[in-house]
Amino acid sequence: MPPLPPLLGARRAPTDQSGDTAPDDSGALAGALASEDAAAGAFDDALGDAELLAARAALAQGRWQAARSLLLHTGDDWDRRGHRATVLAAEPYAAAWSHEWLLAEPGSADAATLHALALVQRTLRGKDDADRAREACRTAAALAPADPTPWLGLLLLARTRGPESEVLRTFAELRERYPEHHHGHHLLIARLAERPQGGRAGSHEVYDLAELAAADAPADSPLAVLPVVAHAERYRVLAATGPAHGDPAGSGHWSGSRARRILRAAFDWWLEWEHDDHPRRHTDLNHLAFAMSCAGRPAEAAALFQRIGRHATRAPWSYPHRDAWQAFSTARARALGRPSPEVSSPGP
After folding, report:
1. Burial state string for 191-205 with b = 16 or more CB within 10 A and e = fewer than 16
2. Which of 110, 225, 287, 347 has the fewest CB atoms lying closer than 10 Å?
3. Nearest CA to 260 among 297, 315, 233?
């Protein structure tokens, strides 16, 4: 079994681009909540990014120039660049229109990156060849050596289609370019959570890796919540393979000393930064709210879900939002002495 990737001591590669600081938005899944009592409308993975919405609409009509402008002005804000590129790439005709852009500007790293990610999305939908998508990502990476985004495309492929050794190698390349890469860390944690458990019950190496990454990140980084993400991903695996109880709150997964400690640390981190309206601070609150629900702490979960409703925030991309909402509603009902409700969650 390959060793865990080194998470400490990496340095950010210098770049020639510049860009405004922007929220950390990466990956994709289900729903946003308006409050503890009501679900919001259909989830859009553009997350309210008006410039991205406009560029995506233009790209759908074959006007790739708006995507060109958007990626140019995003600069080296790598988390936002990764988010914007993956959202654009998911547009059904992104591969065709980004190819048109490449024909017009053969040396454009942005065009090559968008085209590569579009091929990745097509491959993940079963509509293209993985080797073709990998080659396109490598071509884009050669055109922009400091950019982690082509490596994000390779990691998306490796996460679902490659051996673990490929996941680890690709993550190391991505992290060498941007040590805090949010989406990259989530993809790695999701894959490593699927490793068989070794050692004593309740322990798993993915927990240690997540805590190392959180400790190595800046104080305001959403990677502070990564240990909670690791516990949620491990629960996903246990529930799918049988050891975990069907009811997250009754499984015992969230009641151990380590789980209680990482929940307390993550909630304290959120309290420290909750009044900072930078959207980066609100990333991963769905994971934390879900975990608080499972741990029988409905008041904290309610506060988090209310906060989520006031901010565009990414739902976990590999953990169903409907389970988080159901667990929260069940935990709240129990706290109030009411029957557990049947809840319909938003999307996907």
Report:
1. bbbeeeeeeeeeebb
2. 347
3. 297
Contact 188, 167 (CB under 8 A): yes
Residue 94's contacts (CB-CB under 8 Å, 6 or more residues apart) are: 59, 88, 114, 117, 118, 121
- Output the six-digit token pair for 314: 């990414």
Cα separation, 264 vs 224, in Å, equals 12
Residue 85 has a pLDDT of 95
Question: E strands within the chain?
Answer: none
Interval 45-89: pLDDT, tens: 776 788 999 999 999 999 999 999 999 999 999 988 998 999 999
Report if pTM > 0.85. Answer: no
Helix (H) or strand (E) holding 110, with range, is helix 109-124
Neighbours of 139 (CB within 10 A): 16
**Of residues 199 and 326, which shows the higher confidence score?**
199
